[in-house]
Amino acid sequence: MSIGLYIHFPFCSKICPYCDFYVLRESKAKRTAFLSYYEKELKLLSERKQELFSQKLETIYFGGGTPSLLEAGQFAILLKLTKKYFAVFSNAEISLEANPNDLLGNKSEAFHRLGINRLSIGVQSLNENELKALGREHSARQAAEAAQNVRNSGFENFNIDLIFGVPGQTLISWEQTLEKAVKGRPAHISTYSLTIEERTSFYKLQQAGKLQLPPDEICQEMYLRGVEFLEKEGYGQYEISNFARSGFQSRHNRNYWQRKSYLGLGPSAHSFFSNQRWANVRSLPIYQRKLDAGQPPREFEEDIDQRKAIEEALLLGLRQKEGIGLENLKVEFGYDVEKEKGALLNRLAVQNFVQKENGRLRLTPLGFYVSDKIVSELFP
Ligand code: SF4
User: Fold this and answer.
1) pTM of the predicted model, to two decimals?
2) Is the CB of 192 under 6 A from ligand 1?
3) 170 vs 73, 129, 177, 240, 263, CA distance in Å?
4) Cis (ω within 30 of 0) for the bond into 154?
5) CA 19/CA 3 separation, integer angstroms
6) What phi, psi does 123 have (nearest 5°)?
7) Which of 60, 184, 272, 379 is the most buried (most CB within 10 A)?
8) Which fold has domain 2-256?
9) How far apart are CA 95 and CA 85, in angstroms?
10) What is the pLDDT of residues 143-160, one digit of tens each?
């Protein structure tokens, strides 16, 4: 059986005002410590959950944080440690999240030589004012240069992350960012709506009435125009926020949405295996203390019962463009969604949020935009 591995590198050179991930300001000492705790966590898990380690890795994903702050030599160590504990498929997808500034020198070439075969670049916008509003450290020119550098280093498979709904953004500036983004010929583009989360500086600004965001109807239009534009440019949508040229969908992320097994290592990382979900603590000091004491650094764990599994299959299935096979749901879970939620689904279809086609239930582009609302209606 195969499994995906996620490694959470919790450091960034600067914390962005909208970021809700578990991240800290980095230092050389912290980076070095990260490597030794990675080994500690692997070792402890291999002693306590042996069945995990008979799985072969289909994907490895270095996320964060900004893992591209690590040197190539440090990745060589992380990959070597990973291969000490796991067998890895020869065609495994090995992804790394990177900030443009880290890709301006010769790092991307070194990453490629190590066997990392997919980069996800945190570009966010190709408009200077919007980058400033987002508190990013790179310029639009540097982002474009980084994409070029990545391509020249041999990466055909790279993603660009973009954000819409940014303070000061207009429909025109969003379209200009999209047009510039496709010129860099990435294999994959993700477009995320800026959401204001409680733990962030943007939240405080919003509470104080000091954050001016584009109105929701403009954000909705940005999303819909993004979908239309990217599809026209050959980037097929396969998930709410994800678009790829043929053959370049993210295997790692697809596995999440298809409820396949994955293991997350590092503080705040989540795992799903054998009908159990668990998450590591969202605190580096506690994570380290627990590992030092020989304890799994877990914050919570839960068994997924039948009801929860149905809910997950529906929620994750609806995130994807292909939607959910209604017959599959009946065979796998004995659940007939049309019988259980028929009246609600009919109403959502009239509102142009969902559609049923060839035995599959899926969200429309408009439905994708309001998917959170739909989900809370399906599972109040
Ligand atoms: S670089 Fe990414 S992970 Fe780091 S603070 Fe900014 S948004 Fe968060």
Assistant:
1) 0.96
2) no
3) 42, 11, 11, 21, 40
4) no
5) 28
6) -80, -50
7) 60
8) TIM Barrel (3.20.20)
9) 19
10) 999 999 999 999 999 999
